[in-house]
Amino acid sequence: MRIGVYPGTFDPITRGHTDIVARSLRLFDRLIVAVAPNPRKEPLLSIADRVELAKIATKEFANVEVESFNGLLVEYVRERGAHAIIRGLRALSDFEHEFQMALLNRKIDEQLETVFFMPSEEYSYLTSSIVKELAMFGGPLEDFVHPEVADKLRQCYRQETS
Ligand code: PNS
After folding, report:
1. Ligand 1: centre distance to CA 161 (Å)
2. How far apart are CA 71 and CA 136, in angstroms?
3. Among 18, 20, 136, 149, which is disulfide-ready with 145 (CB 3.0 to 4.6 Å)?
4. Is residue 83 flagged as an active site residue?
């Protein structure tokens, strides 16, 4: 049984992320979507909301679990008995940071590989930040996120402006 951990901030989970989930399930038997608090990025959504929305957006897939984690990713992956870290790679601009993280994680644990999946072209430009910006200005969201994610974002920005 091959288990993959797909870590991220998921603020919020997008259709680009779920595309990566679907692709990884072709190679892995089980997938753990691991939501990091990531205070460095000052997320819009609480960790509980990000986990909840990731559960909703991935409920169509069997063998996917969503949970949050604290601390070092490498330790979490080891604790969960997983075999690889999964990351999506969109454009060249992602590469440098991803390369750094993958090599750093492998330096900490020689046994641990990071596996990259390319999303479908239609999501190759999609980021959580772009989706939040669209939501902030009342743009259309349903092509990019699950409807319940779209509702939550609209609700957040409505509260901010009222
Ligand atoms: O979606 P993101 O923001 O690109 O995800 C980044 C994430 C959460 C995968 C990364 O920040 C992370 O692994 N955080 C946990 C702390 C850690 O292990 N850091 C060292 C690896 S660079």
Report:
1. 31
2. 31
3. 149
4. no
